[in-house]
Design brief:
The complex is a heterodimer of chains A (683) and B (315). Chain A has 683 residues and is an all-alpha fold. Chain A has 35 helices and no strands. In chain A, 34% of the residues are buried. The model of chain A has no long low-confidence stretch (mean pLDDT 92). Chain B has 2 domains: 2-204 and 266-312, Alpha-Beta Barrel (TIM Barrel); 211-255, no CATH class. Chain B contains 10 helices and 18 strands. In chain B, strands 1-3-6-7-8-9-10-18 form an 8-stranded parallel barrel. The N and C termini of chain B lie close together (10 Å). The model of chain B has no long low-confidence stretch (mean pLDDT 93). The chains are: A mainly alpha (683), B alpha/beta (315). The A-B interface holds A 84-87, 89, 204-208, 210-211, 231, 234-236, 239, 268, 278-281, 283-284 and B 38, 40-41, 45-47, 86, 89-90, 93, 212-214, 247-252, 254, 256.
């Protein structure tokens, strides 16, 4: 702001970067050096300092500017020093006496009105700080007030005038004349955008009598409206709106308050931290809807469309869709057609109401939806942008509404296309139908539009199918499907064919793999192993490896990466972060257990059998955890509020103890595994 | 018996001086400053440092320093010692200026399990540097869970027997300053507390401003007198609950028609109830100071010197 003022003063000949430096960052010494350089007293300036020597500027004007800058800089000790609390006694911030003389001298001498007004500002500010601690001073004796009043009509009522006025308001506040202080602050607030924030912060009525007096000071209706506006943003927008409408329904001071009411109502109804709006939120929705509707109906504000849109939206939130429609219809005829943002806002409101009112979707409605759905899709994909427009939430909710409606009509394919949901992918037939739609050659315009909302392609779906087939132990088919997905999957963080007595993913992940193993490599290795088993080759060792692999691609294993994918979206480290639909599948160790038993059967030595039995016991125990994780009522729970009731000692522990108690592996397991040790102690 | 004095400007009115004289108060616990974490400087700084505006004789003073728990959450272990030194220096300087001599210092901090180590280190260090008798305030939950929250390394503790409920917009919620049912849940292990205890009792009131089912603010300066002004408020069917009947400003606060004000008071009867309940859980043979919170805002029409003597006699 001040940079722009000085930029104008120098008729745009002194660049903004140099001004910015001199006005806001330069030290006294820096300012002096730049000035000396211009005057030729210094040959060169350090890098980064503005080189102004070559500029063709009025030297007199420039010298006056530097004089002013140095003076202004010397006032910063009292006017722009942030006083923080500290352990040492606070230094008193004083206004140096000599400075008053200096500012006065400059002020009297200066003719240039631009500079003279700034010196007036400096003087008033100086006196404000000088008189700040003096509670007893009368208005008549105050140099702050007298200096302001003596010249207040001598200058333009521009920004610097209002900044000066701000100090006068501050003087009145310090001297407890809150009525006057608040009135003057309201004048500053009204002046410009930049003046709004400090003035708004300073507006603080104390007693009701102050407020009444402040209102009486207002000279015009507009001034009164500003005062009510300030009360509105701070304390009571509903009351302020009613008062301002009475004063002047065309006042632009209504706009912000209306936006505030809408925002507050939205917040009350849709507070992230509460599941359902409480009675107070509902009541305030009703009151605000009634208030805004009654004003909108009169159509006598400066922006009647703004009120009709707001009234429509509040009625929409209040679930009175007929009233909402009626307000939107009125608004439509009043809209400023060349205001892209307002038109877009209208379109969003109109669309969300349209969707909410739909009872069923047929060919006709689908045809109607093509245009708005494409419009939103363009925004979503960044193919079109409208500055300051927020649409994600409205779009998200309306798309959800559409999906629900389709579901109700029994069209799960369309429901899923608009809003993909996990349960859909539990049924392979549905996935196939989705694939058929994606591949359809002659898609209708509506289908093409709809699929802009579908997040997956053919490859994503094939990859998912391949994962599901793996967890069904249909490895040949899984490989075919993964090839269709044209992806080999992710690299496994550890070798899934290895296992240890106590699971330790971090230890496994630390072991560097000789060769990167992708998901497809895991599948192919399993395929080869299975082929060997079929031929009766190394059955014990192969079945054991197979069991390890199925264990490790489950939640309990070292290669959870195997189930990463776009469709399942499993994040996090607990079973609760696995979507309920896929939880049973990814937690299960049943296939692993089956192969451990195959291995045990084929084992030649007691040691081998003991090892397989122990591994089967791990699967058994994990399954006992899964009982809690898989309960339907726990689908949306988290780790803290679900009780896990594991089977501590299952049947394989007992077999291990009774049949393999004399093996070396038994000793090893006792040493490593605390659970087994406690079983051993107990029985 | 004794009083706290918690205001920033230390200036006793005639009534306040009289109460002190009439209760033979030999000692006054005066808050000297707060220590808060300054987010801008990333350091703990003293705030609201006391201004002595009193020339007449005051009784012996025990300085009190309030430290926010956040200070210890943010402070590094290395910063603890230096905080203790600075705190002690500032106390010494403030007292020196007033020619005050003090034998003891009281530290008020609602510490938690997470800040225990740093706070206790601070107390150790402060004690070492100040060489004064050291006291610390103890909240009810710190008594009940003393093995979890720890017992501060000080010479004496002061049990704060107030602020036991939550500030709630729920109109059914009992008085948050004192209510017997809540207190009872915490008193079981009081006699086993590992520090000798003085007792702090409430003689303050406040009003909760409630709008749209939410507590907006708590005001000490709005009491029964203000709420009884029928131009502004009307009583409701519920005791101590008032409703604003117009929009108005008072003391810098905006009150909206329909706002509810829930008055939470301590009067003599309630204080007596608290004293009886508490005394039953304490060993009578121990000598303790009963400190009333607080003199600076004390409602002199509700409490007389005699009342304090009677209440203190329960212990």
């Amino acid at each position: 702001m001040i940079v722009n003022e000085w930029y104008g003063y120098f008729n745009s000949k002194l660049d903004k970067n140099s001004l910015e430096y001199l006005l806001t960052t330069a030290t006294t010494k820096g300012i002096d050096s730049v000035h000396k350089h211009i005057k030729g007293k210094i040959a060169a300036l350090p890098n980064g300092m503005p080189q102004l020597k070559s500029l063709k500027l009025d030297r007199k004007k420039l010298d006056a500017f530097f004089d002013y800058l140095l003076l202004a800089k010397s006032t910063e000790v009292f006017a722009a020093t942030d006083i923080t609390h500290s352990w040492e006694p606070q230094p008193q911030v004083n206004t140096p006496a000599a400075l008053e003389e200096q500012i006065l001298k400059h002020f009297k001498k200066t003719k240039d009105p631009f500079l003279k007004q700034r010196l007036w500002f400096q003087l008033v500010r100086y006196y404000y700080f000088m008189e700040r601690g003096d509670e007893a001073i009368s208005a008549d004796a105050s140099k702050t007030l007298n200096t302001f009043n003596a010249y207040k009509n001598a200058f333009q009522q521009n920004m610097i005038y209002h900044r000066t006025l701000g100090y006068v308001a501050g003087w009145y506040y310090k001297n407890k004349n809150y009525a006057m202080s608040n009135y003057l602050n309201s004048l500053c607030y009204n002046y410009s955008m930049e003046a709004k924030i400090p003035a708004e912060w300073s507006f603080r009525p104390q007693e009701e009598a102050d407020w009444i007096r402040t209102l009486q000071m207002a000279k015009t209706t507009a001034e009164k409206a500003t005062l009510w506006h300030l009360l509105g943003i701070h304390y009571d927008p509903q009351r302020a709106i009613q008062e301002i409408v009475q004063l002047d329904a065309k006042s632009e001071k209504l706009d912000l308050l209306l936006a505030r009411i809408v925002n507050k109502t939205e917040y009350g109804l849709d507070n992230f931290y509460q599941s359902a709006p409480d009675s107070a939120a509902k009541q305030s929705l009703k009151q605000n809807t009634a208030l805004v509707s009654s004003i909108a109906l009169k159509n006598n504000t400066a922006k009647p469309y703004f009120w009709n849109l707001a009234a429509g939206y509040l009625n929409f939130m209040n679930q009175d869709y007929t009233a909402a429609r009626s307000f939107y219809n009125t608004a439509r005829k009043q809209l400023p057609k060349d205001d892209k943002l307002v038109m877009a806002q209208y379109k969003i409101l109109d669309w969300t109401l349209y969707v909410k009112e739909l009872k069923k979707i047929d060919a006709k409605t689908e045809a109607q939806m093509i245009e708005p759905l494409n419009w939103f899709a363009n925004l979503k994909e960044g193919k079109d942008t409208i500055n300051s427009l927020r649409f994600y939430k409205a779009l998200d909710q309306s798309i959800s509404n559409l999906a629900e409606l389709y579901k109700k009509q029994g069209d799960v394919i369309k429901a899923n296309a608009f809003k993909s949901y996990f349960q859909f992918y539990a049924d392979n037939n549905k996935i196939e139908q989705m694939k058929a739609l994606l591949q359809k050659q002659d898609k209708s315009t509506f289908e093409q539009t709809m699929l802009r909302y579908y997040p997956f392609n053919m490859h994503d779906l094939s990859y998912h199918q391949s994962q599901v087939l793996t967890y069904q132990d249909k490895i040949d088919e899984a490989i075919v499907m993964m090839n269709k997905s044209e992806s080999g999957g992710f690299i496994m963080p550890a070798n899934p064919f290895n296992i240890r007595i106590n699971d330790c993913h971090d230890c496994d992940h630390e072991n560097k793999q000789a060769k990167d193993m992708y998901a497809i490599d895991v599948l192919k290795t399993i395929q080869n192993i299975k082929a060997e088993i079929k031929q009766g080759k190394n059955v014990y060792k192969n079945a054991y490896l197979l069991a390890n692999a199925f264990y490790n691609v489950s939640f309990y294993g070292n290669s959870r990466t195997f189930y990463q994918g776009k469709v399942m979206q499993v994040e996090g480290n607990t079973p609760f972060e696995i979507p309920g639909t896929f939880r049973t599948m990814l937690l299960s160790n049943k296939i692993a257990e089956k192969y451990y038993l195959v291995a045990a059967n084929a084992a030649k030595t007691k040691e081998q059998k003991a090892r397989c039995t122990f591994m089967a016991s791990k699967c058994e125990r994990n399954e006992s955890y899964n009982r809690a994780y898989n309960k339907p009522e726990n689908a949306n729970e988290n780790y803290w509020n679900v009780d896990i009731e594991p089977v501590f000692f299952g049947k394989y522990f007992s077999i291990l103890k009774s049949q393999y108690g004399d093996t070396q592996f038994y000793e090893e397991a006792i040493k490593e595994c605390g659970y087994f040790r406690s079983y051993d102690d107990k029985y | 018996m004794s009083f706290y004095y918690w205001k920033q400007n230390f200036q006793l009115s005639k009534g306040q001086s009289d109460i002190l004289a009439e209760t033979n108060g030999q000692k006054l616990y005066v808050r000297f400053f707060d220590i808060k974490w300054n987010t801008k400087a990333q350091k703990p700084y003293p705030e609201a440092i006391i201004n002595f505006r009193h020339n007449s004789a005051v009784p012996a003073i025990t300085p009190v320093v309030f430290i926010t728990n956040q200070t210890f959450e943010k402070l590094s272990q290395q910063g603890v010692d230096s905080l203790a030194i600075k705190c002690n220096e500032l106390l010494k300087n403030l007292a020196l200026k007033q020619k005050l001599h003090y034998k003891a210092v009281q530290i008020d901090c609602d510490w938690t399990v997470g800040t225990k180590d740093k706070y206790f280190n601070f107390l150790h260090s402060f004690k070492a540097h100040s060489k004064k008798t050291l006291e610390a305030t103890i909240r009810l939950h710190q008594v009940k869970y003393q093995f979890k929250t720890g017992v501060p390394p000080v010479d004496r503790g002061v049990l704060m027997f107030y602020n036991m409920g939550k500030l709630s917009a729920d109109l059914e919620e009992p008085n948050s300053i004192y209510n017997a049912n809540t207190a009872e849940k915490y008193l079981g292990s009081l006699n086993n507390y590992l520090l000798p205890l003085d007792i702090a009792l409430p003689v303050f009131s406040w009003a909760l401003q409630i709008r749209a089912n939410q507590v907006i603010q708590v005001y000490g300066k709005i009491g029964r007198a203000e709420l009884s002004n029928t131009q502004n408020f009307s009583p409701t069917a519920q005791k101590d609950l008032y409703k604003a009947i117009r929009n108005f400003f008072t003391g810098g606060i905006y009150i909206k028609a329909g706002d509810l004000f829930k008055l939470e008071e301590t009067d003599k009867a309630l204080l007596e109830q608290a004293a009886v309940q508490l005394a039953a859980h304490l060993n009578k043979n121990e000598k303790r100071t009963i400190i009333y919170y607080e003199l600076g805002n004390l409602n002199l029409s509700a409490f007389k010197a005699k009342d304090f003597e009677e209440i203190s006699a329960y212990f």
